[in-house]
Amino acid sequence: MKWWEKTVEYSFVYLAAKKDLFNLLLPLDGDVESIGDTVLGKDSEFFIVEFKKELSDLSGEFSKYTNGKLGYLSASEEMSKDPSSKAHFLIGGKFVEDQPHLSIEVRRYFNVNETPVTDITNLFHGGMNLEQLNKYTKKITSYKKAEETDGESGSSSGSFAFESVLAVSKSKKKATLVPLYYFKAPAPKKELKPKQEYKPPSPF
Above 80 in pLDDT, residue 105? Predict the structure, then answer.
């Protein structure tokens, strides 16, 4: 069986919709994708999700961190102490013999020793509120590589078409305005280096 990261994403969304797990799916792209692929909401509780083709291959994830795999493991050691990290997940695909469809497996993003689970029914509970999501976002992006930008507030992926998303709970009794600005990765400042005077090589 062949599949791709998008296959995993579509399979998960289908399962989540079938089980009625969420009432907000906020796919991220461009500069706001610095925290993950998607933010999921359930009655104003938020979860961060990163999709991978397989959980056994995280090389692409390691490359997002300063110092690669060592940077990811260092971040894991610290971030796993944060209670909000329980609402941050890695989701991958898995081939199971005699199963006609792709299996989905999930583990918490920073819990590197956690055994993945395939039943997502009772996994997504105790999410972050908006304030916790804000703080967690700032912490996780501090461990990741900063990307070059076109300017002070722009990015290589373009500017925002929208600055916020309005999340309305399924009961329609509660609404949360989710600002996108704090999903941006910190941009490095370019330092101007003094020009060195050219000195021709000595003939002797």
Answer: yes
